[in-house]
Amino acid sequence: MVNISCALLIIVLALASADATLIFDASDVKATPGTSLALSCGVKEDFRLCFWDHEDGRSFQVEDVHAGVHPGLRAPEDLIDNQCGVVIDSVSVEDSGAWTCRVFLADNGGELRNTKIVAACHDPFTYVSGGCFYFHSTEGLSWSQGRDYCQSLTTSEYYSDLATVQSCDQLGEIWQHIVINYENPPMFFIGGTDVNEEGNWHWVTGGTVPRSAPFWYPRHPQVDTTRNCLYIQAASGYFADASCSSVIPCICEEFSYDTGLEL
């Protein structure tokens, strides 16, 4: 995940011309899924080519976008001081995250780049580290009640369920969000369970819950048939297992229907 503080800096490589200037608004942007999103980027210097890169590894050469090579992406109507700009016709949850504009200057003048964070989540979900999450903290619910609540947020545009965690970095940023936004951080149920087979932890949307460090609190998960539901500890940010009848807040996640979930 790109450090957001770095997104406020124009990174000029050592070989870049001292007179070259990237025209770029590094402010984070919120977008509603299904609407168009303009990513603007210009340069006050002759350049050879430019790219837009997403943190998930996707990379688009702007000249190809302007030529219509990439469906769903197009050139903006106004290219003045925006020669490397692109427009996403219908932004999706998967387009959330860090987008970097890279410009290669003419005559081996080096490279300019800058990054901005796009958050494309439906209300009431909030973008955190590659996903759209809703921290339902106004009431305590059992694990099954929490799942029912999350699923009740489902619409024709997206599916909602208890949250999943895909990486250690994502777990850390979710916990950081909890610590920053709650004066007395609560524990939160998420969508992991071994209720069907003791010790076989899986996500409600499919896939295996990681069992290795540094996800779990020491001596967790416990071999205990009364502790079959996963939560994030408030004090440490680790996974731990609890009784599914415990009453605590929960975290919901927004999913696209085309992500191949086992719904």
UniProtKB/TrEMBL annotation:
Among Pfam families, the record links this protein to: Lectin_C
Taxonomically, which superkingdom?
Eukaryota
Supply the alphabetized keyword list. Answer: Receptor, Signal
Gene3D superfamilies the record matches = Mannose-Binding Protein A, subunit A
Domain Ig-like per the UniProt entry, residue ranges? 18-118
- Carries keyword Protein transport? no
- Write the signal peptide boundaries: 1-20
- All copies of the C-type lectin domain together span 128-253
SUPFAM superfamilies this protein is in? C-type lectin-like, Immunoglobulin
Q: Which SMART domains match?
A: CLECT
| Entry-linked PANTHER family | C-TYPE LECTIN SUPERFAMILY MEMBER, FI01427P
- Protein name per Swiss-Prot or TrEMBL: Pattern recognition receptor
> Which species is this UniProt entry from?
Procambarus clarkii
